[in-house]
Write a structure and sequence with these properties.
The chain is built from 9 helices and 11 strands. The protein is α+β, with helices and mostly antiparallel strands. It has 2 domains: 155 residues, Sandwich (Jelly Rolls); 102 residues, Homeodomain-like (Arc Repressor Mutant, subunit A). The strands form 2 sheets. A 6-stranded antiparallel β-sheet has the order 2-9-4-7-10-11, covered by helices on one side. A 5-stranded mixed β-sheet has the order 1-3-8-5-6, with no helix packed on it.
């Protein structure tokens, strides 16, 4: 399943892409290698693959990882794990700060065998923040490599969440998802959405669970979180974001955002800075 999100070439007119080259092509300098980077708006890495695994995390902004048959999102409470030899392309539509931890094939045995988004625990997030604050590090130092190995152990045991915001190619369900993606403030019930799609509510419930792996209401909340993040980073007020996403009051939006991300909108805005 893929997420329904426009490709980079469909970005707003007048915005040119910032192309970044991948740091390593043939070999890693160390079995574990960490790097962070600041990405301007509308930046992309070329489609490529490598013989090592890669863990991708976004400190702020939203990183996207595009495969041939799927599309993964990495908001700050999630990360993406890519096993060795997976062809992929990285991109971000808004300015972002992200990191990658490259893992030699011999160290990938306990890590997921498929590409997946994973939950980032407070401990894992704190360790990644520590690495960013350290700046230039002796990448080959024994203590540094031990620290990276603990991160890998945490990634190996972290809950997997698939693509975070999955999609469906089912002709009935897809039109419902596309309508919501275009207008996330749409507050029509699932029964009303089913009627617009010319099907029964029970049919949509079954197809949501089958294709999305979650109820319709949860998918809609995840979509609203994804839509809210760039607005918050652009310093839109919580009240304005709430209205844009279909909430009658800011407190309802704040409660949803905190339940889904573990932080309030203002806390997220501060962390993104």
């Amino acid at each position: 399943m893929t997420i329904g999100i426009e490709t980079l070439t469909d970005s707003k007119p007048g915005r040119s892409a910032h192309f970044r080259d991948v740091p390593f092509r043939d070999a890693l300098p160390y079995p574990l290698y960490f790097r962070s980077a600041q990405m301007p708006e509308n930046a992309t890495y070329p489609r490529h693959s490598h013989q090592w695994g890669e863990f991708v995390y976004s400190y702020s902004g939203m990183m996207e990882v595009s495969l041939n048959d799927a599309h993964y999102l990495a908001p700050p409470q999630y990360a993406v794990w890519l096993p060795p030899h997976v062809e992929h392309r990285g991109l971000n539509r808004h300015a972002a700060v992200h990191c990658s931890l490259y893992v030699a094939p011999a160290l990938c045995a306990n890590l997921p065998g498929e590409t997946t988004a994973i939950e980032v625990s407070p401990l894992l997030r704190a360790m990644l923040e520590h690495l960013r604050e350290q700046g230039d590090e002796d990448h080959g130092a024994a203590a540094h490599l031990r620290f990276l190995q603990v991160i890998i152990d945490l990634v190996a045991s972290a809950p997997k969440v698939g693509t975070y915001l999955p999609w469906s190619t089912d002709p009935v369900l897809e039109q419902v998802l596309a309508r919501l993606q275009k207008n996330p403030a749409d507050n029509r019930s699932l029964a009303e959405q089913a009627r617009l799609a010319g099907t029964a509510e029970r049919t949509l419930i079954r197809r949501c669970l089958r294709d999305l792996g979650m109820p319709f209401a949860e998918w809609k909340q995840r979509l609203r979180v994804v839509k809210a993040m760039p607005m918050l980073e652009a310093n839109d007020t919580v009240e304005r974001v709430s209205v844009a996403l279909g909430y009658s009051n800011a407190s309802s939006f704040i409660a949803m955002f905190k339940r889904m991300t573990g932080m309030t909108p203002d806390d997220y805005r501060a962390s993104a800075r």
